[in-house]
Structure formats: structure tokens, C-alpha cells
Amino acid sequence: xxxxxxxxxxxxxxxxxxxxxxxxxxxxxxxxxxxxxxxxxxxxxxxxxxxxxxxxxxxxxxxxxxxxxxxxxxxxxxxxxxxxxxxxxxxxxxxxxxxxxxxxxxxxxxxxxxxxxxxxxxxxxxxxxxxxxxxxxxxxxxxxxxxxxxxxxxxxxxxxxxxxxxxxxxxxxxxxxxxxxxxxxxxxxxxxxxxxxxxxxxxxxxxxxxxxxxxxxxxxxxxxxxxxxxxxxxxxxxxxxxxxxxxxxxxxxxxxxxxxxxxxxxxxxxxxxxxxxxxxxxxxxxxxxxxxxxxxxxxxxxxxxxxxxxxxxxxxxxxxxxxxxxxxxxxxxxxxxxxxxxxxxxxxxxxxxxxxxxxxxxxxxxxxxxxxxxxxxxxxxxxxxxxxxxxxxxxxxxxxxxxxxxxxxxxxxxxxxxxxxxxxxxxxxxxxxxxxxxxxxxxxxxxxxxxxxxxxxxxxxxxxxxxxxxxxxxxxxxxxxxxxxxxx
Length: 488
Hints:
GMP Synthetase, Chain A, domain 3, four-stranded parallel beta sheet
């Protein structure tokens, strides 16, 4: 084992291959030397702003060179980067800031969050600051992410792994070394952020898209010949639906097409396997706050159709309502446990996960076959997976309930051919309240992807006297109703 800090690993590439391209977005490319120098300059500024080892720095920036430079600078001072969407409404961002208590918020105006230090971008340091030595500092938690919670409030998912890598081992998440990595997704999500930062740390040329566009993704594959591509099923769907003349690009450079974050329809998986070959299509199932994950290759999937794979590493257990393990093929609640002696990958702030005897509930329902392959029967009822985004219905309901004209509401996920699921709100409203009123209200409180795509206004109470509603009854009833883009 050869453990080195991420900071030292990046510095090594800047020394050994200084002129190799490291990061490209649109028409701008930085070499490893340029990326090292620019992130080091910003690190000096962060030190001057009193950012210390173990602090949190919130990054509310779009996909950009500035985002990556700042994230690397955060690592260089031993702090933890917390990426959030740059399009978050102020109220939602404020709730995250109150939970995370960051030392600095980058990407917003100074007056946006009174009492917090906020800057649109980290400024360049003075020449005198640059003269200060910048030694190696190791962050105790190299990344953190946020998520909506089942309580209606956000939760913070802080990694437990320090900013080090085992340089003698293969990179995590099937990433290559010294190759080309294409990341189309938003950097405020765990997988794109991880793929970008670790991709650079392992000496890869990382290609970023500002926003996903299926035709542009194929153009980048043709231009840069990546070996690794990271997608979610919605991206796969939009690419495969492009006209054949747009899809007629040379895809032979791709060795790993890694999809995750949402269920992939069998027909879509088959289409990609037919297009690229089974040995190049991989799937990951897991979450930032789960103690493990599963991986399956396309070849394995053809032999275990519908499976999301086996744990890599760790263990999976299925239990009944009483918490007792069930037999092979029996559907129950999914639990995960890390390898013995290995700590959890993350700690949760703002929510308490269900744990028992070292096992953590994933919240989904599924079963296992005789060879240990896991199958998902149903996703957790308090979460909607839309276009690869985790949307907790309680968070959406809480925002709706804050409207003075809303008497009660229920938010559910309905099938959608493009997004996988769409957010649908059933709302009991007072006189004169319109759908436009609700849309305007929600756009001020939640990120756009969390706001309902469809509304159903009713006059009857939706919950019983105890405030309960049976979503397991509501959802099947709505599946029979016609809706644009729904899947039968």
C-alpha cells in the first residue's frame, strides 16, 4: 500500500507531466501545471480568509474551471468542499448553510446570507501572500454532499475518508489512470464531483460539460476519445433517442460507461449493450449515505436480468417487517454493512439513519438470488428519483404547506418516460388558489428540479386526523390516469 495525500498526487502530475492537459470545459483547457498553480494561488487566499483544516467551504458555483480550481484549493488547505447547486433558491441554500455552518460560501453575493462570509469567487491573492510557504495539509473529510431529508429539512452527508489515496491500488469507481474521463453531470452531485476530483488526482484529462446536452456529449466523445463516461439513465435515454446520423460517431475509445443514480429500464440497458457491447456497460447502485454499494457489468446483467449487482465490498441483507432475514427470492427491506473493521463511508447530519447491529437500511425494497445478486423491487416511498436526482417528498410537501392557501398536500412520484419519475402534487387548496400561484410559490423555495411538474387541485382533505396518508394507495390509483410521457 502506498498512501499519499491527494494534494501530493496532484502536485506530482504537475511536476512529472506539466504540459499534459488536465481539465477541459468548452474551449478552455488547463494543463496540470496550470491547474496546480491556479489552485495553489486560491489556496493562499483561503488561508488568508482563515479557512483551516477541517473547515467546510460551500461551493455554489456552476460547472466551470473556477469550480474545480476552488475545490482543489479547498483540499490544499485541508478543508472540506460542500458543493450545492448554483440555482438553489436563497431559502433552500440558507437551510443548508445553517446545517453545515461553513467557514465560507463561494458563488453568492456578500449580502445573501447575513452573518456568513460570502464571495462570488475566491479572489486572487496578493504577491506577499504568494510568498508564504504552502505545505501539505490533509483534509479529514475530502468531500461532503447534501440531500433532502424525509423530515422535510435538508441533511448533510459528510464523508469519513481523509483526502488520501492508495497509489498502488486501482482507482475507485472503475476510474482509469492517465486516460481521458468525460463527466456530463452537475458537480454538485456526488458521482460527477467524485469522478472529476479523483479523475484529476489519478492523472486523467477530465472533460466537463457545463450542462448536459446529448448531442454535445457525442461530439466530445468523437473529439477527445475518452475511455470513461459517467451517465444517469435519463442521459442514456436522451442520447439513444437522438437521430441515427447524430449517433453515428466512433465510440470505440470507451472502455467504461458507468451509469448510476436511478433505475435503468431494461429496454434502455439492452439498447446500450447492443450499441457498445456488454463488457463496456457498468451499473452502480448505492447512495452517498449508504455504507456500501453494488456494481454489475453488462455481461453479468444479461445473466441476471434486472439485477443491480453484488456488494463491492461489504454485505447486503434482506429482512421482513420484523427485521428477520428472509430466504432467497423473498422481497423485503434492503440493508447494507461495510466490511468488518471498516468504518462507515459517511456520517449524516440532520437525520438519523436506521441502523441495527452494524447494518444500515438503504430504504429500498428488494430481493437476492442464490448467487448473491441484488434486485430492486421498489424504491423508498418517501423519495422520488427524477432524472437521477433524489427528491424527498417531505421536503416538497413542507414547501407547499408554507403557502397560506394550502390546506393539505401529498407529493408522489409517477412514472415518466424521460425522467424515470416525475414529481406530482395533489393539493387541497382554498378558494381562488390556482396552479400558477403554487408554481410561483415553489420556485422561491426549492430548486427547480424539486418543484412538481404536475399539480392536481382538490377540495377534499387528503390526510386523516392523525395527519397520515396512504401513498401506497394513491400511487397505483394515479398510474391508471393518462399523463404526458407516462410509462404503462
